[in-house]
Amino acid sequence: MKELPGLIAVFAYLSLLTVGGGMAAFPEMKTLVVDEHHWMTFPQLIHLYSIGQMAPGPNMMMIAGIGQWVAGPMGALVVVLAFFLPTGILALYVGRLWKRLDHWPWRDSIQRGLAPVSIG
Fold first, then answer.
1. In the prediction, which pLDDT does 37 show?
2. Top-confidence residue, 56 or 2
3. HSE (CB half, 13 Å, CA atoms) of 107?
4. Residues 32/38, Cβ–Cβ less than 8 Å
5. Counting Cβ atoms within 10 Å, is residue 17 exposed (0-12), middle (13-18) or buried (19+)?
6. Among 99, 106, 86, which residue's Cα sits nearest to residue 18?
7. Residue ranges of the alpha helices (H) in the chain?
8. Could you read off the pLDDT of 59-69 as tens digits, one per residue?
9. Does residue 118 carry a pLDDT above 80?
10. DSSP state of 14
């Protein structure tokens, strides 16, 4: 239980690095989880990554395994919430802001320009 604040801090930070997909944060996750906090070894992290790739759903659900490994079921819950809530809340607020800018003349041009970027 003493590891929960550290797990929250690390995975909330990693949440903000996931622009372009969850695997964009994997190198930093390895640095923080393995090298800095020593919560697990690199082979253990790769093992969890492999399980996450085989499981249905988002491949970053492997983070629940890290939380489970470090702090049991509560760790798994805390890590999942810390990883997915910040970007979910950010997306909610950006969506609301985007809706308020409906009358803005540049909105349609920006949206058409961002469509291919988001697909790529």
1. 97
2. 2
3. 10
4. no
5. middle
6. 86
7. 4-15, 26-30, 42-54, 62-100, 107-119
8. 788 999 999 99
9. no
10. H
For the full predicted model, state whether its pTM sits above 0.85: no
How many other C-beta atoms lie within 10 A of the C-beta of residue 70? 20
CA distance 47 to 56: 16
CB 38 within 8 A of CB 30: no
Cα torsion 75, 77, 78, 82 to 10°: value is 140
Segment 71-86, tens digit of pLDDT: 999 999 999 999 999 9
How crowded is the C-beta side of 98, counted as CA atoms within 13 Å? 12
| 71 contacts 62 by C-beta, under 8 angstroms | no
Angle at 16 between CA 14 and CA 17, to 5 degrees: 65
CB neighbours (10 Å) of residue 35? 9
Per residue in 15-32, pLDDT tens? 988 876 778 889 999 999
